[in-house]
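Issue 218. Parser rejects a valid record. Input:
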Amino acid sequence: MGRPRGQTRGRVVAAALEALKTRGYGGASTRAIAALGGFRPGLIFYYFDSLDDLLVAALAESSGERLDRYRAAVEEARSPAELLGVLRRIYEDDVASGHIRVVSELVAASVANEKLRGPVLELMHPWLELAEDGVRRATAGTPLEQLVPVPEAALAGVTFYLGANLLTHLQGEFGDVTALLELGSQLAASFDA
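Output the parser choked on:
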């Protein structure tokens, strides 16, 4: 008796996620993914129409898992300083887990690959909604509530995060971005006072 179909598909997605984390988009070939997962390359096409579909599924898996966890943290942030603290923790966790490379690789690949662009952009929408919710909660009842346009501030936050992902990927470490997030937290704390 073999594995249930969902478990095998999950193993394929997990291997693709590991390939993106360790080898990047260019190194996440069907053979590399299959070798990491311990299965034959043809199994990928049993579950997915293309390699890019599998890689998007890997991003969706990683992103969805994080989105659920981070939503709870954002809901607890009651000030701009607390929201920036949450953003810093999210960023540091994403660096440590390798998620930052997965995002960076697929965002960068989607610039040149039109087939990736739509699905990757679609995966960003829930993050924009989460950012809007966070900005709305953090500025509620503060002088910033009337000054900060929520959609634009949320877009700026997500744009910063994506840019920080790419910069971290290029630099290989996150000291500069962490220091920038710390500075933002300190500035935001002055609004809380």
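Fixed in the parser; the record now loads. The domain at 57-192 is CATH 1.10.357 (Tetracycline Repressor; domain 2).
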